[in-house]
Amino acid sequence: MAPATPPPPATPSPEHTGSALELLVHGVGGATPQEMLGDPRTVRVTGDTTAAVYRRTEDAHGEKHPERYGNEPVAEAYCWSGLTSGNGSRALWLLLLPFMVVNLAHWMRPTATGRTRAVRLYGVLVRLVALSLTVLLTAAACEVALDLLAWQCAGADACAERRSWLGFLSERQGGWWSQPGRRLALAALVPTALVGLLWYLSNRTWSAYESQRPLDGEDFDEDDPFGAAAAHGPDAPGPDADGSPRRAAPVRPALGRPGFWYGRRLVARLRAAHTAAGFLTVAAAVSGAAARHDRGVEGPVPGIIGAAVEGGIVLCALVVLWVVCRRGRSERTRDTRLDGALISYLPGSALALLALAVLYASWSRPDWQSSGTLPGEATFRFLALGQGVLVVALAVVARGLYRRTPEPRTVLYGLGGPAVAMLACALGGVMTGGVAQRVADWLDGPGTPGMGREADIAGPPVLLSWQASVIPVLLLLLLVPVLVLVVRTARTARRLGPVIETEYAPEPPDEGRTRRIARIRATAALTDSAPWIVGVVSAATLLLGAGAIAGSWYSDQVPGRAADGSGPLLESFADAAQATGSWLIGFGFILFVAGGRRAYKDASARRTIGILWDVGTFWPRAAHPFAPPCYAERAVPDLASRMSAWTLTTPRGRLVISGHSQGSVLAASAVWQLPDATRRRVALLTYGSPLERLYGRWFPAYFGPGPLLGLHRSVHCWRNLWRATDPIGGPVRIGDPDPGVDRGPLKDPLAYGRTTKLPLPEPILGHSDYQADPAFANARAGLLEELGPLVPRQAEARTQKGTSGRSSG
Question: How far apart are CA 136 and CA 99, in angstroms?
Fold first, then answer.
């Protein structure tokens, strides 16, 4: 790369026609321009240091000299790895994993035909589940800071003495901060700062990654301004603005709608609502304890003040619910408006209520002493029950949508979204329960909170302890499906042995080589079993969550635990599971952050776990505004703009967009965004593509059989290469009578043993190096041929070159 060299013009002069361009898009894990173009000398054509288009230095002005290339295209590489990788601090995004997972559930709804209300209800339920996760995270921070630290530990002399930094809060010292209400007010800074940090990260990542507004359609095609017809989709109810009925218009798929990759208004609304919900949760925790004390005794603070503060919190919470339920995504038009008053006043009002709650709690109450725990048990039970009810309701809606338009390859018969939403709730519950339990264990020293005579503090709510105890049980339950998959994979590998030897006949069999190829093929097929693993885990989580609620209720009914550690068998088992789960969460948390940091700094580690992360952050933030940023809101408009600009300035040019792995998903999404006239001049080449195998099954409304068939019919031509050894890519399964799209399975390895042409052993490539297969060059040449024959200028140049060669010979 030559950064000192000024970048060439993004597009050549319009008079240079007849060129062919191949736009390469890399996949998960990223790649350098030099690797993609096979040349150490590259130059940036357009873009910035985050995402840009590169060419070989010698190809910088290739359109001006088409005679140099014959029928070969000029290669361009779009590098977008800067959107998903960077410094190690981005590993902190992994802490937002529950938010990312619940955002995925929004996009997993089954295909719907004429069910506008059901689709809207599905979106509302997912947004409510997402809101509950924000409240759960904030409530967990309040549990740690307000209850465990400020209320229990600072109120217990033994605990406060072991923690010298808590001495100024101790009741024994009798300082200004020693009163319980003032300790709670000071501790409220921790969850408040957490909510503020989440707001800041959401706002900052939007500005850095997702605020790139796509070019207006009229810049490219005045007759079709980037899908104006898409405004009349099947789920667009009601008449036009003037009251007349909607006119029939061609319908563009969802990913081709003008506003799909620009959700600024919704993200801003949800960010305001979730920020307000976080502040209100802290305010409720602070004011609730003070109000409960004031209602129980005659003190210096009138009870009406606490009632007024709590009434304001309830009223503001109702407004938050209305905002979350009122509006979803607006995709038919590029919605550039912002609800300025809502964005400013809603979080501001919640913050003002929090300030009032802090002032109210700080009022002097000399007779107030902290004992026991804060009333958090009911809060966490209500959240757990609410999440369970929402997930069950979501499952009912999703099943109804699936029955209306059943698609056999949809995962879990349409219940993929509810299952993933349940996993998000489980992640949130396990993380909050484990952190609370670990902090309690750390504060209590040698004792176990609430378990015996050595304990100095009561510990976290019993429900959080039971949620931590669920982890060992869940791991034990997972052993069954894992063992089943291991046995089935081994049997499949044995059955594949004779098939592989037949494919490579008449080469002599090699037992070791056959066994390795068979094992890789059988392992690659495990991807198709992932839905059932998710379903088993989600169902087990739902049942175990119900058991945790019942167990916490049982613990409340038991008058106390045996001080000497003995007790009923159920109680002993619960204690052991709780302790094991607590340590597993602590150990897993360390591995989680360390692995995430390594993944963002090490390309090989990033490739290992990158597919799951890149699938999660591919989708816009439609349910949770604090989820990690969506890189596709930058990458897809980049690709669409580049293709549209090149085809406009090269009227007779041929363009092939070539995407590998996740790059094929970006390529297909960008093609959907093109104007109709441009799309008909574009060829699509995908390889190692998860378009149908992952996206089509998990996100049927957007990548199901209907949208993929429409994509096939709208582009000029399409080829998809896949291997049986690839655990990610697969066929796209277009249901057209004569699709001609899938090419595969390709031979992998290319040679079974040593041959004259390939005298050294060939590697098993799996998901990588598709361009090393001769089928890749053949597919690209076929696409260029289908796009159109050589234009006269190119044919003449090639004829002159051949004549000159014969004359000199």
Answer: 11
pLDDT tens, residue by residue, 242-256: 333 333 334 568 888
> Where a domain ends, among 340, 375, 409?
409
Is the Cβ–Cβ distance between 260 and 676 less than 8 Å? no
Number of domains in the chain: 2
511: left (phi over 0), alpha (psi -120 to 50) or beta: alpha
Residues 289-338: tens digit of each pLDDT: 888 887 877 767 777 888 899 999 999 999 999 999 987 777 777 777 77
DSSP symbol at 111:
P
CA-CA distance, 352 to 350, in Å (whole number)?
Answer: 5
Distance CA 526, CA 231 (A): 40
Residue 74's DSSP bridge partners are 21
Interval 332-378: pLDDT, tens:
777 777 776 777 789 999 999 999 999 998 888 777 877 777 887 88
Same domain, 27 and 138: no
Strand partners, 75: 22
Residue 556's φ and ψ, nearest 5 degrees, are: -70, -30
- In terms of domains, do 52 and 102 share one? no
pLDDT greater than 60 at residue 561: no
Contact status, residue 316 vs residue 355, Cβ threshold 8 Å: no
Q: What is the model's pTM?
A: 0.85
- The answer to whether residues 420 and 108 touch, using CB atoms and an 8 Å cutoff, is yes
Tell me the sheet residues that pair with 42. Answer: 56
Q: Who contacts 570 (Cβ-Cβ below 8 Å, separation ≥6)?
A: none
Q: Quick check: 179 and 364 in contact, CB under 8 A?
A: yes
What tokens does 341 get? 């008053």
Enumerate the β-bridge partners of residue 718.
684
DSSP H/E element including 52:
strand 52-56
Return the DSSP state at 239.
Answer: -
Say whether both 35 and 110 belong to one domain.
Answer: no
Q: Are residues 227 and 279 in the same domain?
A: yes
Partners of 76 in the beta sheet?
A: 23, 55
Rounded Cα distance, 180 and 224, in Å: 66
8 Å CB contact between 339 and 302: no
Helix, strand, or coil here: 415? coil
Q: Are 783 and 683 in contact (CB under 8 A)?
A: yes
- CB contact at 8 A, 261 and 673: yes
Q: Where is the domain boundary, 361, 377, 409? A: 409
Q: Is residue 204 part of a domain?
A: yes
The answer to whether the CB of 391 falls within 8 A of the CB of 418 is: yes
- d(C-alpha 283, C-alpha 358), whole Å: 7
Residue 106, Cβ density class (10 Å: 0-12 exposed, 13-18 middle, ≥19 buried): buried
Whether residue 237 has pLDDT greater than 50: no
Q: Facing residues of 684 across strands? A: 657, 718
Chain center to CA of 204: 18
Name which of 312, 319, 305 is nearest 275 in CA terms.
319
The domain that holds 770 is classified in CATH as: 3.40.50
pLDDT of amino acid 227: 34
- Order the strands of the 717-723 sheet from edge to edge: 42-47, 52-56, 74-79, 20-25, 654-660, 682-687, 717-723, 742-746
Angle, helix 97-107 to helix 416-443, in steps of 10 degrees: 170
Asked whether residue 57 falls in the same domain as residue 162, the answer is no
Which structural domain, as residue segments, surrounds residue 51? 20-79+631-808
For the ranges 16-20, 224-228, 771-775, the lowest mean pLDDT is seen at 224-228
Residue 779: inside a domain? yes
541 found inside a domain? no
Report yes or no on 714 lying in a domain.
yes
